[in-house]
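Q: What does the assembled structure look like for these inputs?
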Amino acid sequence: MKNFGYTIIKQRTIDYDQFDGRLLNEVLEMEPSFKVCLSCGGCTATCSAGDLVSFNVRRMNLLLRRGETVELESEIKKCMLCGKCMLVCPRGINLRNVIMLIKKSISKYKLSG
Amino acid sequence: MKHIVIIGGGIAGIEAACALTDAGHWVTVIEKNEKLGGKLNNWSYLFPDFTPTEKITGALQEKITEKDFSILNNTEVSTIQRKNGKFNIETSGEQQLEADALVVATGYEIFDARRKEEYGYKIYDHVITSADLEQLLLPGGDLTVAAGKNPKRIAFVHCVGSRDEKTGNHYCSKVCCITGVKQAIELKKRLPEAEIYCFYMDLRMYGKHFEELYREAQEKYNIQFIRGRLSEASEKIDKSLLIKSEDTLSGRPLKMNVDLLVLLVGMEAGKGTANAAATCGIGCEESGFLQTTDSFLKSNFSEQEGIFLAGSCTAPMTINDTILHARSAAIEVDCWLSRK
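A:
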């Protein structure tokens, strides 16, 4: 068959009806301090990994809250767990624990992303 | 004639004293400093319309002279005791006062920016606070930085000592956002060549003409607003400062070299208010500001009958809000005394 170059494009819209919040809820339950992130970016500003590679620790919150578990799993590997983000965070979030909890549980949920 | 003692001679204390004198009461204001007017005396121009502070302090001074209430300056309250429905007050000057009602108007303290060590206040040469800048904005104020040059690039940091778990201050200080916009415009007027950046988390332009001033800062003065909280500042050998933040809207870390860094410091309840709470036997909220009985209908009432609250000892407040809160305190005192 002749290929006209047409394809089905994945919708860019965030479809909240398809949102799978299981991983998010698990992390929030184990580390409630993560509820209060105000997305100021102080963590990303000071991040040792983010200086060198395209790693944005603030975005981990966003990816988790949007159910983007596939991207989350590959991104989270870049964290070196140095903990500088925790020194800066104005909301006192235990980010290192958040990263560890995601690492531990993501394999259970990644297919839904 | 009833006697009312007001603790604190800032805007709230003066305003309440004037209103209560008008209502026919005898009023004594106890002020720990030499001069009445409180923190207002250290400010040069006021948001959102650049009113020179002298206009307000001058008007207050006129009122003070006209109303003729008693003032005990350089004085603090030592002890307060309740006896037969009256307050017996002993001052640091060993005066004894007997009052029918008390108004606490002890105000706030400016956040000590040294506590945010990562921003380098009092460590690096060209890191200043909004309170320091206010003095430099007066005619003749020296704005030069290293080697006597005018700063080419200036950054403002919002929320220093506010909305910050690390300093123990969870609350928003309310006045810093608009102060930053006002001071950025004033600096741009004085230094038209300079680039000015504001690093913010949220811009809270809630008051009358605040949003308009923000718009003017963008439209007329080309002030740049970057959404991100500074993680740190470090001084370079030429005394300029390297600052780090995330540009959260583009999702990438950002670094910038600036010649002057201005920290928009917030409000804290401070020692004066803590002491007043202890001597009066009234409660503080978690923020350190004084507890009001009801935030809607009894914002001037403490939990102790006969002790009323006025102004920024209850929460961070603008000058306008302080004046209104003090006037409402005066009405509450007057009503309470007439019911007694």
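The radius of gyration of chain A is 16 Å.
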